[in-house]
Design brief:
148 residues; 5 helices
């Protein structure tokens, strides 16, 4: 027999498994960031194949990737503060630190640092992409008394 209490519990469980709006915003930012960063080796390859325009595209792409990285840090910071979950924020902060070093290494022509950091940031962002899309993003469940 289904009672009102049972249906309320079922509804709470169904809601708990959905991703919140803030979670969707983080997913959108991480996904856009990944698409932008994957274009960077393509633009570098265009330049290395003999087209000087590829270098300009790579520079513009670096600006876009860096801006999206900072936006990701802001979005994950807000999410971390609201939900009391700092893991994604700390991972994003580390990734953006590596991207910033890579950005300036590329501007300085230090390819010995720029290329390995590029591979590292693409791999790190891919792992973050999988993490945010793997399951529902939601706040940590609280107990009846309001404690965690």
């Amino acid at each position: 027999m289904v009672t009102a209490t049972t249906s309320v519990r079922t509804a709470r469980v169904e809601v708990a498994h959905r991703t919140s709006l803030a979670g969707w915003v983080v997913r959108a930012v991480v996904s856009t960031h990944l698409v932008a960063i994957i274009g960077q080796p393509v633009f570098a390859g265009v330049y290395l194949s003999g087209s000087f325009d590829g270098l300009r595209w790579h520079a513009v792409g670096a600006d876009v990737v860096t801006s999206l990285g900072y936006l990701q840090v802001i979005a994950t910071a807000v999410l971390g503060i609201r939900w009391r979950r700092g893991g994604l924020f700390l991972a994003s902060l580390g990734l953006v630190a590596a991207e910033t070093v890579q950005y300036f290494a590329g501007m300085d022509g230090a390819l010995w640092l720029h290329l390995p950091l590029g591979v590292l940031t693409i791999a790190g962002l891919t792992v973050q992409f999988v993490a945010v899309w793997r399951g529902p993003l939601r706040p940590i469940a609280r107990t009846e008394g309001g404690d965690e």
